[in-house]
Specification:
single chain, alpha+beta, 7-stranded mixed sheet, 3-stranded antiparallel sheet, 10 strands, rod-shaped
């Protein structure tokens, strides 16, 4: 009887099992790489959005010169909003920087529509320290989609603050 060339059934099954193991390893490596990429991209986008919001907050609070509080001082309400007036002549009136509903908003004038500076916040606090010319506002917030423990904060010293901010 003549010997036939070819693969046995056991050899074919062993080959399929080995290729399956290699395929599972490659797909899990690819999946890990994609997850890492998307996590890094999300962290970068979150940081960029937070940086833009912090720059706008600094721009706003740097020009605080008064408000609706006692003696015409800016007013920090329950640690979640600041009501103030500004030295910017192009944007007159009482302005409000407020945190509510997971968003930080800026209302450019009394009765005007609030503009969202940043969404997706899990918490936010607004404080002040010092008196008169040495006062400073601090705004700190945590973003819900930021990496764990990541917070964003800015401390701004107003240019022309001559009265101590008021809390209520």
């Amino acid at each position: 009887m003549r010997k036939q060339a070819g693969f046995t059934l056991i050899e074919l099954i062993a080959c399929i099992v080995i290729l399956g193991i290699i395929g599972i390893g490659a797909s899990s490596l690819l999946s890990l790489g994609m997850r890492s990429f998307f996590t890094a991209r999300n962290a970068d986008n979150t940081g960029m959005v937070a940086q833009i919001a912090l720059e706008r907050i600094a721009l706003e609070l740097r020009d605080v010169n008064g408000g609706v509080g006692a003696g015409g001082a800016a007013q920090v309400l329950a640690g979640t909003s600041i009501v103030y007036t500004t030295t910017q002549t192009a944007l007159p009136g009482t302005r409000t920087l407020a945190y509510a509903g997971g968003a930080l908003t800026l209302t450019p004038a009394t009765g005007a529509t609030a503009r969202t500076l940043i969404n997706g916040l899990s918490s936010c606090s607004m404080t002040f320290s010092g008196t008169a010319q040495s006062s400073a506002f601090t705004v700190t917030f945590f973003m819900s989609n930021a990496p764990t423990g990541e917070h964003f904060s800015i401390t701004v010293k107003p240019r022309s603050n001559s009265t101590t901010p008021v809390t209520s």
